Amino acid sequence: MNQEGTVLWGINNIYQVEGDDASLRQCRIKGKILKDVEEDQSPITPADRVVFDPRGELIIARLPRTNSFRRYHLKRRTNQTVFANVDQVLCIVSAGEPPLKPGFIDRVILCAGDIPVVIVCNKTDLPGSDEALEQLKLYEALGFPVTGVSVFSRNGLDGLKEMITGKRSACFGQSGVGKSTIINELIPEANQRTGEVSRRYSKGRHTTTCSALFRSGDVSFELLDTPGVREVEIPDLIPHEISRYYPEMAQFDGHCRFSPCLHLHEPDCAVKSALSRGAIDFSRYERYRTITAHQMERSERR
Fold this sequence. Notes:
Blueprint: E1 3-11, E2 14-19, E3 24-29, E4 49-53, E5 58-62, E6 68-73, E7 78-84, E8 88-94, H1 102-112, E9 117-122, H2 130-141, E10 146-148, H3 157-164, E11 168-173, H4 179-186, H5 189-202, E12 212-215, E13 222-225, H6 247-250, H7 270-276, H8 282-301
């Protein structure tokens, strides 16, 4: 009889599925194709709910997702789901080494869509630039929770635990920000399990080579680890809808002469008016312009 379960990790068409009866099985997708699944570079991701055949160890179907974190796959020119069914995204950054990249945070927010984003600044024991600290204050003022942590000094870890308790959180960040170090501190067994998967299936080192879902020992929270990235491309979005993920711009919806408004060159634009008054951060608006223009170019090439 078929069962339902949750995908913990997947690599090379091998997926570890935890059944609702707490059993663990390594399953495959027969033919690597799932019926009734919309076109996606990643039909199955960690935290997906699936129907599987425990006898043949085959995934039969994917259950509907509550949400998903998507990015654009440049080589295949299609959207790719990185993970799904989470309560929040922890965008792990550093204010010093590597330096903070506000543009990366902006793109993570767009990839997350309607999933709440929490900005976690790691390595607070190291000096950070004044500009980086000001940028973090800006995101906090815009309504994005910001918290600082240091695994070295252990500062901020208790506060972070409070923010993730009772939730399934996905960690996403650039390479070198210490994302996996935070996870290993919060869930020590995660390091061993990630290394085992890496050695057995991808022949890699003890670095994160695939996304994986981990549960704390007291089952009070879940963390989803993802491989570090250098850059992230936003998924295909309707250009006019991009501004709704910018709280400082979304508040002016319906106040521009034209609707919808791209807030670029249109006359009587409420966003541009707010920008001229200093009510909107200029550097963040310029990054919005770049992202929107790039999205329009991508749409025109199709």
